[in-house]
Amino acid sequence: MSNGRFSISLHILTLLDQGKDELLSSEYLAGSININPVLVRKEIANLKKHGLVESKEGKAGGFTLGKPSRQISLAEIYKAVQKAPLLGHQKNKPNPKCLVGKQIDQHLDALFIDAEEALVKRLGKTTLADFAKKFY
Amino acid sequence: MSNGRFSISLHILTLLDQGKDELLSSEYLAGSININPVLVRKEIANLKKHGLVESKEGKAGGFTLGKPSRQISLAEIYKAVQKAPLLGHQKNKPNPKCLVGKQIDQHLDALFIDAEEALVKRLGKTTLADFAKKFY
DNA sequence: TTGTACTGTAACAAATAAAATTACAGAATG
DNA sequence: CATTCTGTAATTTTATTTGTTACAGTACAA
Fold first, then answer.
1. How far is the CA of A48 from the C1' of C29 (A)?
2. Do A33 and B101 lie within an 8 Å CB cutoff?
3. Which of the residues A80, A82, A123, B64 could staple to A74 if both were Cys, CB 3.0 to 4.6 A apart?
């Protein structure tokens, strides 16, 4: 995944929840996270695709949450960010002449899906509102 | 973690379980996984530290399981391989002047530990023997 | 007792992936 | 119509992961 992206997205969304009612700029968000504003905008481009963020262009533009933070679970954020499976074996091309090598990818895939599901289930128990509440 | 390491370790251990009674060489193992034998030896160095593998040096040397595959859970393998937390935010240095930035690392850490625990718990339900059994 | 077939490691190189930067077009405001 | 934003592409830099080479040390077996 590049596991830092989940942290960044959650940080962004937490700030947006706190700054409800205001439009926050990528520069402001980047300042809190301490990364480049372009990275924030890229990350938000993804969050927008998933309906988690809305934006307004032009002068005095910026970002807000796409829906109330009570309706956003951390599982939803996780899934929005996640591209590749968490434990996935990458370009592995195990030896097909070997009994184990021939089948292992399918078994690993099944296992990883299960394991990741357990993690996502746990994340599903917390909403963005719950998380953001910790910051007062 | 470098998520491919878990796959490689599990692949190695599965082969060792199948080749019980024999000593398997790093070259043989590498042949099934289709990676470099030195990598296998490096990975095994770690598994040995955790008691999951034993080795014999010298001519006709090689590797065997350190204990019966029924007594090895996938959680144990996972923990042996894992260095950094799975979802961990790396060298993040969020802005301490920001209310959120100041505290977010501690909250993220707590969350990630919880989430990873759920995943490990799931992995704990399967033993290496269960996994290896699939290959017949 | 010496050649051979292994493991164990360190040091280095190459490939890949992630993060940061630069640059600029396009939108909305005032 | 100048200004201040977002959106996005292209590029560079940096970090991480993976692979390679090299060789010392160990055990066996002729």
1. 23
2. yes
3. A123
* Spans of all domains in chain A: 4-133
| Residues 6 or more apart whose Cβ sits within 8 Å of residue B15 | A100, B24, B28, B29, B32
User: For A127, which residue in chain B has the nearest alpha carbon?
Assistant: B111
Which bases of strand C have any atom within 7 Å of the beta carbon of a protein residue? 3-11, 17-23, 26-30
Calpha distance A104→A84 (Å, rounded):
18
Nearest to B8 by CA among B54, B51, B44: B44
Residue B60 at interface with chain A, using a CB cutoff of 8 Å:
no
Q: What is the CATH code for A4-133?
A: 1.10.10.10
CA distance A2 to chain B (A): 9
Say whether pTM exceeds 0.85.
Answer: yes
CA distance A101 to A97: 7
pLDDT in tens, A42-52: 999 999 999 99
Nearest CB among B7, B103, B121 relative to A135 is that of B103
CA closest to A122 among chain B residues: B115
Neighbours of A85 (CB within 10 A): 15
Dump pLDDT digits (tens) for B75-115.
999 999 986 666 665 556 777 777 887 889 899 989 999 99
- Sign of the dihedral through C-alpha B53, B56, B57, B61: negative
